[in-house]
Design a protein that fits this description.
heterotrimer; A mainly alpha; B alpha/beta; C alpha/beta; A: mainly alpha; 11 helices; about 45% helix; about 0% strand; C: 14 helices; about 50% helix
Amino acid sequence: MVESDEKTAIPQTLIEPIDMSRLDPKFRDEIRSMPDGDELTACFACSTCTAACPIANQWDYKPHQLVRMILLGMRNEVLSSREIWECLTCFQCQERCPQKVRVTDIFFDCKNLAAEGGKIPEKVALLAKELIEKGQLYVVTADWEREDLGLQASVPGLSVDYVRTALKDTRAGRIAGGGK
Amino acid sequence: MSDPVLVIGGGVAGMTAAVELADSGISTVLVERGASLGGNALDLYKAFPTDDCFYCFEGNRWKPGIRKCFYRSTMLDQPGVDLRTGSTVESITGTAGRFEAKIRSDPMYVDPRKCIMCGICLERSKAFSLVSPQCQPQAVIYNPRAKDAGSDKAETDCPTRAINLHAEEKSEVVRVSDVVVTTGYREMRPVAVDEYGYGKIADVITQLEMAKIMDPNGPSQGALVRPSDGAPAKRVIMVQCVGSRDEKFNPYCSKICCVFALKHANIAVTERNCTDVTVVYMDIRTYDRHERYYRDARNAGVDFVRGRVQRVSPTPGGGVTVIVYDSLLNRYLSFVVDLLVLSSALEPSEGASKIMESLSLKSASGFVAPLNPASENEVVVGDHIYACGTALGPAELPESVTQARAVVSKILQSRR
Amino acid sequence: MPTYNLYMGCSVPANYPNYEAAMLKVAEALGMELNYMEGVACCGSPNLRAIDYYGWLLVNARTLAIAEQNHHDIVTPCNGCFGSLKDVLYHLKHHKEDMERINASLKKDGLQLTGRVRVRHIVEAMYTDVGIDEIRKKITKPLDGVGISIHFGCHLLRPVDVTEFKPEILQQMVEVTGAKVVDYPLWKQCCGATVLPVNEPLAIRLARDKIKSMKEAGAQFATVVCPACGNQLDLQQLGLKQSYNETYDLPVLLYPQILGLAMGMSRDAMGLGMNRVAADSILDHLKG
């Protein structure tokens, strides 16, 4: 956690509070300005998202806690967490939220920000590479299986060019280029 | 002679308005679609803030002879109140001060003025029943769809000839000077909030359903039992804010359900021998002097879990298993209980929207809204049109009564 | 004859060609014309959305724009593609600035997106456009009431305002084949596919919990409408012997396989041999 090491009038005790002045108050606005982040501040911490989540029991920071951390401005902790990447994107939290906070969408935004800062799980970064190199995540290899079924060996109409070129210019390209 | 005032809805607010207008010399026509007056408060057993039963909140509370052991009904005898039960207002036309209300009434199979509650017809035929021992008017009702072999005999055997099985529907147009909308509220049936299994799992009920079970006049004489098999319910979980404070259903807070949920929790523990009562909440909103229900509940051993439900499954053999996320402990908890009680949202009554439309009334989340919010005349909703009680939004009983008296005051002023 | 833009994505053709074949044969028998879209490839899956939102918008917007050139609905057999296309369409329709930005880019290829294209899952298109009654007429070998559990998949069901899919659709489509739908408590839960690259044990656990729940509810087969869900429940099921020392023997059928068999199509035409957990036992349940 963010510790206070500034010279303040507060005496040193075991409490070790989070120094609020070290947090990033603009983080919540940053998320709010991103796709589907606008209802973020409607959160009243009811924890329905955490109740709905199938895997939150595995997380140190639960979904409602992550939202709280965003609201407080704990940018580093949120963007370096393993939790946001383990989100199943199953939308159960978003579906049940009584304040229409688009929790899953907000986690997607966090992942985008984390990726922008170069913090991506290795295997996910590899997916970006796949897309740039091959234009698709899965390439047909067992074409005889397709032929046995009466299908064409290669998928009709398939064209990977656009995906490969378009993503070169966006963040996926930067990630795949090894740039961190 | 000026025209009477029309009061639509015979719950606490409607009865208070009607009786107090009548006592002030203004006649009223009190229209109630049910067979009995009383509305939602009729069979709730204890009502807050005094924990008395409904009867004490009737508009004619201070009148002599209201005790239910008397067979005569005070509302029928109240001078100045033209009581129409089993009736609805089909349409209202005309102008302010000169409305024409078309009132349709169910066939009067049993004349409440003649019924002496002797019970002979109840013995003869299952088509006759008593809505509640506390019903007003004090009379039995007849259900034509349940007519059986004994019904005709019941008619002939009635000592006061109160029964007429050939009665017919009536329709009448009444001219009224003012309209008072007291259509009340209804509790949402939270079927659409499907994570709780209401409507699919028998032992998942709402708070008002629980109140009715605990009412000594109810089907189990007040014993708290499981709907699935009638076994005693000893372990109860309540969930607050079901369908309230929820942008998908009703964004507003239903105000009084924290209070009555805790009222029920206290009854369950202190009077009905429940061993485990847990309340799952987002916020406890026992506002004002009702904070004592919260303190009393904690003292009585009610558990409070700040969190939400993960999953509800029926337990084989009866009852439900509920998994709850406890946001303070940061752990998931699993409960095996007999009853899951949902504090479901309080919404405007069915049919209120039709009345509001015909009178061009403003709506606030479906409830009747004041004509001019800035004027602080909460009860004035139109020209010569008033509303009071829960038709305006969830409210405590004393609030409804106070609002009804405000309506009476405005009408009196308008007639000076 | 209703005509559709068929968007296959990349997973079905590569990993589940039997799903593709079964779908094409069934669609043909139902009188639906599915035309493979030209010039499209991958949707990126939720993982592209996670790392490169704008890139994800672009890639999927282009697919949508290509479909708009000929006024036919897009149908897809994959929940991931369905979710991506639906999500992108929903987002662009609600965010003018992004729509304009995307269109500025698409213009270079002579494409424009207006947002009027409809994206549908192939199962919903069959249900809505052909209809249960018509489908029932074509059933010549109904199933004998065998219990089948449905795994819908998260991106088919949620978010509701985006996907607009009603579970009853797939339930009725399974029932029309003569099978009995077996409900199970975890029917809404995720199969874990998205998290496979990030946390494999977690994904395997989720897959196992689903299969266990289905089996405990009495299902003899499971059905899916997505290759990723298929991979989780079908391929991963084989690995459960190692990771959990559990064997479930719950064959996972791609929905059109069930419908095709009930319509009298052959085991080989449906590619039943390619299902990882041996699925031939479904043939024993066909009547007539």
